[in-house]
Please model this.
Amino acid sequence: MYAVIRTGGKQYRVKAGDVLEIEHLSVKDTDVTFTPILVSTDDGRTLHGREAGEFAVSAKMLGDAKGDKVIVFKYKNKTGYTNRTGHRQLYSLIEITSIGDGGAQPEAPAEPEPAAEPDLVV
Model:
């Protein structure tokens, strides 16, 4: 079974046991839950939209990391202008623990029966 999740403006195809390097998440809890966009089950069904929303992808935060340094070099000819800066992107490492039924979602409360209209006496 695999699922496609969206986080940090990107989409990832994940299955249980995968370790991902995603955009930095500033959460304090070690357990994270994602709502999948698409789910492919073991019996060959592919669910998307509202059907996939009934599933939940659980993950465990492994820690934070920094990516490789990217050098930004600006140069303008004949003016003597040069500018050199760098950037290191922050990432979060997560491990997908399970893709399963989100049975923990509460059911919608039953709607109350409409009140009977009073009999009109003419």
Notes: The chain has one domain: 2-101.
